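User: quick one, sequence for these tokens?
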């Protein structure tokens, strides 16, 4: 599904998280200088609307919810051929991946996505993909949950034993006018920091002002020092992806500040 990790500088490194973090820290300034030309470069700008940019830059495979937080990816990847409407691409039941080769050893990437989730449904992003998904791949999930009644952001990873999504951290998105059955239209902003951290911001749109902005992060992910890619998937009722963009940016080096209000928010 994605490019093989063939970075000769990082082959043979220890599988220890501590060792990888130390390698990244000790080489950071050298790598940053070498990678500086990539800064602020757009890697992808994609609108999933009729008569917009063709989607032949993407591949797709089946993505199934097996229940009890377990998920399966079936079949080989094929060119994305899903029908696109004026509302966007219905991603439910699919995992799609852009043909990108990302370098995150010293840089971060800024990802913007416009989404609409019906209930119940979930949207996923799998980061730092090389040849296959492992328990080291960071995953975020956003769920429009009818049982727990709300929109939830989860950070986690997949267990290789049973394809179970292990939640490391979860936040509930606050809504001014909650209606558990309505579609959730929102904008998603992600800073994939390339080190242990991933930052996520969820905010409403002009059509949906009920969502209060949520900013959250998780900081115990495995870095990937070689080339990698990412994938986006969904399951459940309709999950419409309207557009997305990806660009390189500087890594956030300071520790996020936790807001002191009675909320699970951060400032970054």
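Assistant:
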């Amino acid at each position: 599904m994605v490019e093989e990790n063939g970075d000769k500088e990082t082959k043979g490194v220890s599988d220890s998280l501590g060792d990888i973090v130390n390698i990244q820290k000790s080489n950071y300034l050298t790598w940053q200088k070498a990678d500086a030309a990539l800064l602020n470069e757009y890697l992808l700008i994609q609108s999933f609307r009729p008569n917009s940019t063709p989607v032949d830059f993407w591949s797709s495979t089946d993505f199934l919810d097996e229940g009890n937080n377990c998920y399966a990816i079936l079949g080989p990847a094929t060119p994305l051929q899903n029908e696109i409407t004026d509302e966007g691409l219905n991603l439910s039941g699919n995992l799609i991946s852009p043909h990108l080769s990302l370098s995150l050893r010293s840089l971060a990437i800024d990802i913007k996505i416009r989404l609409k989730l019906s209930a119940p449904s979930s949207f996923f992003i799998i980061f730092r993909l090389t040849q296959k998904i492992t328990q080291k791949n960071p995953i975020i999930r956003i769920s429009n949950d009818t049982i727990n009644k709300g929109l939830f952001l989860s950070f986690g990873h997949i267990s290789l034993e049973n394809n179970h999504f292990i939640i490391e951290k979860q936040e509930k998105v606050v809504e001014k006018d909650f209606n558990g059955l309505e579609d959730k239209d929102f904008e998603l902003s992600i800073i994939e920091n390339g080190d242990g951290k991933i930052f996520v911001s969820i905010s409403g749109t002009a059509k949906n002002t009920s969502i209060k902005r949520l900013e959250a992060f998780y900081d115990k992910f495995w870095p990937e020092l070689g080339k990698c890619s990412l994938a986006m998937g969904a399951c459940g009722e309709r999950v419409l992806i309207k557009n997305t963009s990806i660009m390189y940016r500087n890594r956030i080096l300071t520790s996020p500040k936790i807001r002191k209000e009675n909320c699970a928010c951060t400032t970054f």
